[in-house]
């Protein structure tokens, strides 16, 4: 699909095709000629082809190639391209932002797409920029569908993650039961019973993190750090914001408390002594 329109130094010119509009103001060209616009197909583009790193990007509409025959552009022109609404996220707060989509042109020398300053208009679903040269232009945005898919896959992987199989050596006279059936979100093992102290190791049985809130009469021990994230989230300010201790997936923390009455003595009850022969009747 293509379109053509006349352009002159005195009157300027405008060409429209498939929702794309190139407006050349008077005095912006040298000579008289014709504006030619040709629509090209849309698709996905890797962020590496934009000279950046990050998530995969996607075209938000077809690319359009512009050129002038018989004249040359010496001042800026106004370029507006249509943006597909289905290429943007459904969340209104995001899809109405002026930077949710932007214009890029194809640099034939470096063979990559390059972005320019532009502005998205949610009311007309178009993105506009002042351009100083004519080439192949396209509206670009993030690959929102791909991002959502990767988030769902990541969350699924986290949900399927489990801690190593629990092997507890419970001290004599104690038993520990985990609520939550055969696959509880956390499980505990009694690790120490000495004097007035009962210690329980609590392990997260999920790949995702959770907040651990020990009983009021218990004290949480210091976890073993596993990188900067663990160190950062164990800070007092972060704990206060979370409302409890941060427990990463598979991480174990020890909580201790005074045992209830009757748990101080762990020796089994003595058997009654058998009467001696001299006392038998």
Folded structure, characterized:
With 281 residues, this protein is mainly beta. The chain folds into 2 domains: 2-146, Chondroitinase Ac, Chain A, domain 3 (Sandwich); 158-264, no CATH class. The protein is built from 4 helices and 21 strands. It has helices at 92-95, 144-160, 228-233, 236-242; strands spanning 2-7, 13-17, 20-24, 29-30, 33-40, 44-45, 57-59, 63-69, 72-73, 77-82, 102-107, 112-115, 119-121, 126-131, 136-142, 186-194, 197-204, 210-212, 219-220, 245-247, 252-257. Strands 1, 5, 6, 7, 8, 11, 12 and 15 form an 8-stranded antiparallel sheet that branches. A 5-stranded antiparallel sheet has the order 2-3-10-14-13, with no helix packed on it. A 4-stranded antiparallel sheet has the order 16-17-21-19, with no helix packed on it. The longest helix has 17 residues, at 144-160. The radius of gyration is 35 Å and the shape is rod-shaped. The N and C termini lie far apart (118 Å).
Tell me briefly what this model is.
This protein has 281 residues and is mostly beta strands. It has helices spanning 92-95, 144-160, 228-233, 236-242, and strands at 2-7, 13-17, 20-24, 29-30, 33-40, 44-45, 57-59, 63-69, 72-73, 77-82, 102-107, 112-115, 119-121, 126-131, 136-142, 186-194, 197-204, 210-212, 219-220, 245-247, 252-257. Residues 262-269 and 276-281 have low confidence and may be disordered.
